[in-house]
Amino acid sequence: MPLDKPVSDVWSLLADWAEQTPDAPALLHGDRTISFAELAERSLRVAQGLADLGVGRGDRVALWLPNVPAYLLLYFACTRLGAIAVAVNTRYRAVEVADIVGRSGAKVLACAPGFRHIDFLSILAEIEPQALDVLKALVVVGEAPATPPPAIERLQRVPFDRLLTRPRRGANDAGARAVCNIFTTSGTTSAPKFVAHRQGAIAGHAQQVARIFGFAAQDTLSLGIMPLCGVFGFNQILTTLAAGRPSVLVESYDIDTIAGLIGRHRPTTLFGSDDMFARLLDRMPGDRPMPSVRWAGYGGFNTALEAIAEMAERRGLILRGLYGMSEVQALYAAQPLDAPTARRKKGGGIPTSPLGHVRVRDPETGALLGPGQPGMLECAGPSLMVGYWGNDKATAETITSDGYVRTGDLGELDPDGGFTFLSRMGDVLRLSGFLVNPLEIETHIQKLGNIEACQTIALARPDGVRAVSFVILAAGAALDEGAVITHCRQGLANYKVPLRVFAIDDFPKTPSPNGFKIQRNKLRDMAEGLLSSS
After folding, report:
1. Do β-strands 156-159 and 137-140 pair in parallel, antiparallel, or remain unpaired?
2. Burial of 383 by CB count in 10 Å (0-12 exposed, 13-18 middle, 19+ buried)?
3. Is pLDDT of 301 > 80?
4. Which of 163, 152, 91 is closest to 121 using CA atoms?
């Protein structure tokens, strides 16, 4: 079987299964089922269609698409051509799309202007025509606009279905060292960086994770909810395909739809956010609402859901903490399945590759730290990026001379192996000389019944660096700032007690493939303004 045969490139990952199990289902979408043979056949036709548009080795094709089969057909076509698929977040708006298409130098942009859940056409209409000068063609998935917006009026517009009528591409420019993916960082404080990966790293990681996660089991079925434009969703689908097993593509993040698909398809594999699982458990009745799911991998993004793993376990759903990022791919590490819930729920775990290795470094002295000592995580292994496309300076700052990625995450090594993710380094508070995970303060504040969510930042004041918290109140509640600070004094060290607590309607956010990320720099600016005016 192909999992026992390491492949050197992404195209071979698909082609081997198409040869050995041609009729096996690869993708399920709505009422459609696409076999491995059909996926390979159609990808070859799309590859020739892209070649007709001038796409060749090293050229970029921007994929601004939801989770639909066309995304993967275009992706595999790019790997056959030795071209690079640029993932464009479907949450991005006009300025962000224009920036990514322009800076990546994409020749072709694929989008679905008639898609019912995202108004791609209106976003295109907001883009200045000159912003897309680098583009040669637009591949339209689904219904084309009757009147194209000015930004795409001059472009050659090709229906995706026309690509499927082309003859199969004969030449094969796939290769282990060929760059095949560009993912974008979230860009909360600067323009997104372009994270580039080679085919060998993408294919090898998919096979390794499939082995470690047991995806070769005959009943494996993935429900692909997380968007393909991010590594979390992309790596899940590619890992399932690497095992020769099918994935259900979920094109919209609608909880009722997802709940219905779980009931209909009975997936064994489910990845998502803590918020998603909380909403699903609330939506789906019964003691065991997801009996087919062996375990579910999740990322914790909402501090108000710190107890989601225990809540899920009471209803028969085992949640397992993971770790990954664009620079090292998703599913880089996972907590042991047999670990106690208190450990299994945390981000981090043991690297899925035997060649993966994590170390923790003091961000100020540079000294390597032992177990239980928080510091900056550095990751090595075969799943690492080549670097940041078009940004050698950022690459040199991120990849160490001995091949580790400086993750920008705060973590600590575990005494019995593996590591625990604590927070982003940019979120870490240094208070009274100590590194403090803001989650500790936020979780304590959220124990108050009238507070639904909390974010905490550090701010330099004349008497030193102090914590400042922002809270979202429960409906109808009023903020008693003094009571919150007293509550903190009773449960936290003095240096962790917030100087001030402010109530706001919502936190400033920026879109990412896994949802929205809090813009803590904007919270910091807000705190400066509020304190200076008080």
Report:
1. parallel
2. buried
3. no
4. 152
Mean pLDDT of 516-520: 79
SS3 content of the chain, % helix, strand, coil (to 5): 35, 25, 40
For 179, the token pair is 């760059």
Residues in the chain: 534
Query: Residue 170: what pLDDT?
Result: 96
| Rounded Cα gap, residues 106 and 234, in angstroms | 20
| Per-residue confidence band for 433, with pLDDT thresholds at 50, 70 and 90 | low
H/E segment holding residue 351: strand 348-351
Does residue 383 lie within any of the structural domains? Answer: yes
Clarify whether residues 417 and 444 are in a common domain.
no
Partners of 60 in beta bridges: 84
Please tell me the pTM assigned to this model: 0.85
Contacts of 322 (CB under 8 A, 6+ apart): 271, 297, 298, 299, 330, 331, 333, 334, 335, 347, 349
- Number of neighbours of residue 452 by Cβ within 10 angstroms: 14
Query: Of the residues 379, 409, 427, which one is the last residue of a structural domain?
Result: 427
User: What are the structure tokens assigned to 91, written together?
Assistant: 């949450």
Per-residue pLDDT of 102-113, as tens digits, reads 999 999 999 998
Residue 314, classified by CB atoms within 10 Å of its CB into exposed (0-12), middle (13-18) or buried (19+), is exposed
Domain boundary among 427, 461, 488: 427
Residue span of the structural domain in which 298 resides: 254-427
> Which residues are CB-neighbours of 391 under 8 A, at least 6 positions away?
193, 194
Whether residues 34 and 160 fall in one domain = yes
Instruction: Check whether residue 56 and residue 136 sit in a common domain.
Output: yes
Three-class secondary structure of residue 238 per DSSP: helix
Q: Looking at the structure, do residues 396 and 505 belong to the same domain, yes or no?
A: no
CB-based contacts of 292: which residues, under 8 Å, 6+ apart?
Answer: 262, 266, 267, 268
